[in-house]
Design goal:
mainly alpha, 66% helix
Length: 504
Amino acid sequence: MLNTLKNLPFFLQLVGLCGLWMMVPAVHALASEAFHQARTFFYAGLLTLILVSLVGIAISNQVQNRSGLRQLLGLLGAFTVLPLIMAVPFHEALRTTSFLNAYLEMVSSFTTTGATLFAPERLSDTLHLWRALVGWMGGLLMWIAAAAILAPLNLGGFEVTASAEPGGGEARVATMEGADPVTRLMRTSWRLIPVYFGLTLALWITLLVAGEAPLVAFSHAASTLATSGISPIGGVQSGAAGFVGEGLIFLFLLFSLSRLTFTNDPVPGAAADLRHDPEFRLGLLLVVLVPGFLILRHWAGAFEVDEVDDLFSAVRAAWGSMFTVLSFLSTTGFESADWAAARSWSGLDNPGIILLGLAMIGGGVATTAGGVKLLRVFALYLNGRREIERLVHPSSVGNARAVSRRIRRHGAFVAWVFFMLFAISLAAITVILGGFGVRFDAAIVLAPSALSTTGPLTDVALEAPIVLVELNAGAKLVYGAAMVLGRLETLAIIALLSPNLWRN
């Protein structure tokens, strides 16, 4: 039985898991006596499993393409086609929205973007649970895919430290243990699923102990690990756990800054110690410096007015800034309850633009975070520092280690190419959204929110939130496509379009 499942195409395996996953909200709805929703999810899951079984039987005698590129194609299919299947029970259970809205909601959840078209009170607890589960599954899929699919192909940020060209790394790992793509995928799944599940369970339990309601605690725990920012109550600032809950989420958001926070399997060629990991150190530096910039501007003058009260306000503002900065840097998008105090202390008209910039930087390689990735930023920093040294001392010789030299040269070049592709994608999506009638200020926020998979930017980047449900059908489809592009990254899409890679 296991061998049969193992030999199924990667995309078909994901469809089957989606069908099984639908049974969870079915049981929840049944326990809540929401019988229509229970039947909807049960029948949708059952039909999905029957379809997978029939297709599996039909292709059981065919020789399957087991290449890494075929798995990458399955990953693309998962983020585009699977939301169609996920949207069926969501649409039938809600019954007051269009299928396009349901599809966009599922794309947003599965890509861990977290942008929502619906007010929290419009959805039932079961539908909130389904959104959280879909986001959690999407985060798990990217965690596994990063190590088992993207890393061997030198994609997803791994190209910065690799010596091979992006998309062409399969030959390099041919002699490695588990080099067969299917075997590698299975071994990686068995290694990472318990870690991901255990971390989610730990955060869920601690949030429950802190006083959060079960559904809210699970949604926030799942959203934190998946960096999706999905919440049934509009965000952690509305939760019952208060400061304790935010502190717990803050600690678990640190996992998004570096792969080394949850595994001892480092990025090839990178530091094997978290203390020396450039991604983690750069992420912590941003978490400290940006809040400092936001609150220190008015510190001196305000402190002289009322020393005690303003000291307390400054501490609240500092915490609100640190939590929100880390949240948007990890592309989660949660706001602290003290973010309003931080905005007041900053004295800036719209500090949400800073959060937009942080979201585009993103988190660590091989994590659930989106964005450009900290490792690429670090590679450009090394290259820039070396170029400045050469301007000052033209005859100087760099004293960096071999790994740093490779990142500074080859890695920086590839990172710069990615930055250019990201900028072109950003400009193209903005223009296309404008062509569909979206205001320029809204389009210039929607594009980075999709490409960085940080949906809550639509609520904080501008003075007034962007109402996604008011977009026309064309703009919604473009926004959904941008989410998929941001989740897989442009280099992965280009790798799939290259005939040479397919021939190899």
